[in-house]
């Protein structure tokens, strides 16, 4: 792979980021990137530990004269969200990410870029490698599987970290400091159904919904983009009632923390209903385009004849499941009071799969208020239990309670003002940050989160602003210089 980012500043960060792009590292498959990081530590004569869940901790002694400063933990996650366009051929377990420069941004060709959290990881590596950067004692914590379950943060043990201050490098708006985040929980519903024989005089059709923007199910949920699972279900629900549509299979979405962009269904229709059905789908397409407007202008809904499948979902189960998905809460459920423009509670209907006798949905609920998070989970449980499905909640993680009196926050604000002449915004984010879990294990850790500007993470439209990486880097180095004494 050519070094397309080699002329960007800061050069050490982009050098390491481009190297990271060459190593496949989707969530739950961090083996190759872990080996790469451990080899990097060895080459730089740095102590490195790997815990039982796969987290890597690298320690670097203080610069001369700064040994009496408090120990700082730089923290980021090794995994990336593997999303690609439907027309892109890419194997995230084997193929490198292909970054390119587009004006003021770095993007990837047809896939997620992995700037979430590759820029944070690359910045920490650049600091570990450089012998001239001023800093006190450092610990660099690289966690695993942040995107699909925060497995690494969940698996941290007390005593693994010695630091007193944690700088999380996983936020996505330069000039904004985050001091709190939402907690989350996954809800899964499973319904077993009978496979019916397809009646005579039926035709098979394939429905494709594509072109939606998708995005991060926490950060981007406020944008009210289209959810392919909701759009598909609405279509199937109506056509089931009006045109005797029967479902063979549905496949929509593939990650619980990404707003689903695509959905595919194989259905059958009675011969005599064919024209009405096709006309309705085309009309429905225009309705959805009008409803979404500029929020999601590139949606496509296509319907084409296809091969006759082997079976269909029994009608009672089909009706129950379509009703449940239709009634399942999705999107913004409530906004925070006292903090303008921040979502308090949301739900993302992330994955809907119907095939071979099993119908499944996976959703992710988020809230900065645990009781409201539980309330939305119970709404979803109620809807799917009424449909006869088994429901399970899993992977719950806590929110991060804001501390406006944080000492590192005060230092960081002053450093930012001195460096750039403006005050940063202090915010709470509607997404899961590992700070919530780390704070549970290390309650005395003083933490803030910051990063460069990244847009549309968790989608193939992901991009990172080049200038913001430079500012993020300069601020990070200046903050390390100003860490207080023990």
Low-pLDDT ranges: none
Q: Rg, please?
A: 24 Å
Give the oligomeric state: single chain
Helix content: 25-40%
Q: What is the tally of beta strands?
A: 23
Shape: elongated
Largest sheet: 9 strands, antiparallel
What share of residues are in beta strands?
25-35%
Distance between the termini: 45 Å
- The secondary-structure class comes to alpha+beta
Mean pLDDT, nearest integer? 96
How many distinct helices?
Answer: 11
List the helices and strands and how they pair.
Blueprint: H1 11-21, H2 31-43, E1 47-50, E2 56-60, E3 72-77, E4 99-102, E5 105-108, H3 115-129, E6 138-143, H4 151-154, E7 165-168, E8 176-181, E9 183-192, E10 195-196, E11 202-210, H5 228-243, E12 246-252, E13 263-270, H6 274-292, E14 300-305, E15 312-313, H7 315-327, E16 331-335, E17 343-355, E18 358-367, H8 370-386, E19 390-397, H9 407-420, E20 425-429, H10 435-441, E21 446-449, E22 454-455, E23 463-465, H11 466-481
Parallel strand pairs: 3-6, 3-7, 7-21, 8-20
Antiparallel strand pairs: 1-2, 2-6, 4-5, 5-23, 9-18, 9-19, 10-15, 11-13, 11-14, 12-13, 12-17, 16-17, 17-18, 22-23
């Amino acid at each position: 792979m050519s070094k397309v980012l080699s002329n960007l500043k800061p050069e050490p960060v982009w050098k390491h980021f481009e190297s990271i792009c060459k190593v496949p590292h989707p969530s739950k498959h961090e083996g190759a990137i872990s080996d790469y990081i451990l080899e990097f530590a060895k080459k730089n004569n740095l102590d490195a530990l790997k815990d039982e869940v796969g987290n890597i901790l690298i320690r670097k002694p203080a610069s001369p004269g700064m040994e009496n400063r408090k120990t700082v933990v730089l923290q980021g996650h090794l995994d990336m969200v593997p999303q690609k366009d439907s027309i892109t051929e890419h194997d995230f377990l084997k193929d490198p990410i292909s970054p390119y420069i587009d004006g003021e941004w770095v993007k990837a060709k047809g896939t997620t870029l992995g700037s979430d959290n590759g820029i944070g990881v690359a910045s920490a590596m650049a600091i570990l490698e450089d012998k001239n950067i001023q800093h006190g004692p450092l610990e660099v914590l690289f966690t695993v599987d942040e995107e699909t379950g925060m497995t690494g943060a969940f698996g941290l043990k007390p005593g693994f970290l010695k630091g007193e201050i944690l700088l999380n490098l996983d936020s996505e708006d330069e000039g904004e400091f985050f001091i709190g985040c939402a907690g989350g929980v996954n809800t899964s519903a499973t319904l077993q159904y009978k496979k019916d024989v397809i009646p005579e005089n039926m035709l098979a059709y394939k429905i494709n919904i594509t072109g939606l923007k998708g995005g991060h199910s926490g950060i981007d949920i406020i944008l009210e983009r289209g959810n392919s699972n909701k759009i598909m279900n609405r279509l199937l629900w109506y056509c089931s009632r009006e045109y005797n549509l029967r479902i063979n299979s549905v496949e929509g979405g593939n990650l619980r923390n990404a707003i689903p962009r695509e959905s595919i269904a194989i259905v059958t229709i009675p011969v005599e209903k064919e024209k009405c059905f096709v006309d309705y789908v085309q009309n429905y397409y225009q309705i959805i385009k009008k409803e979404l407007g500029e929020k999601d202008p590139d949606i496509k809904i296509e319907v084409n004849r296809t091969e006759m499948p082997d079976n269909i979902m029994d009608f009672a189960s089909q009706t129950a499941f379509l009703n449940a998905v239709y009634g399942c809460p999705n999107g913004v459920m409530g906004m925070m009071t006292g903090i303008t423009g921040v979502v308090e509670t949301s739900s993302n209907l992330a994955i809907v799969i119907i095939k071979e006798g099993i119908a499944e949905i996976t959703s992710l609920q988020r809230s900065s208020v645990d009781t409201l998070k539980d309330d939305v989970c119970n709404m979803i449980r109620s809807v799917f239990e009424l449909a006869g499905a088994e429901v399970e909640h899993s992977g719950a993680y806590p929110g991060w309670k804001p501390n406006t009196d944080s000492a590192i926050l005060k230092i960081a604000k002053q450093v930012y003002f001195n460096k750039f002449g403006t005050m940063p915004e202090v915010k709470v984010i509607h997404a899961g940050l590992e700070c919530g879990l780390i704070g549970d294990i290390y309650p005395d850790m003083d933490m803030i989160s910051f990063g460069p500007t990244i847009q549309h993470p968790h989608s193939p439209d992901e991009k990172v602003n080049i200038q913001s990486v430079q500012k993020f880097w300069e601020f990070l180095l200046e903050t390390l210089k100003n860490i207080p004494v023990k």
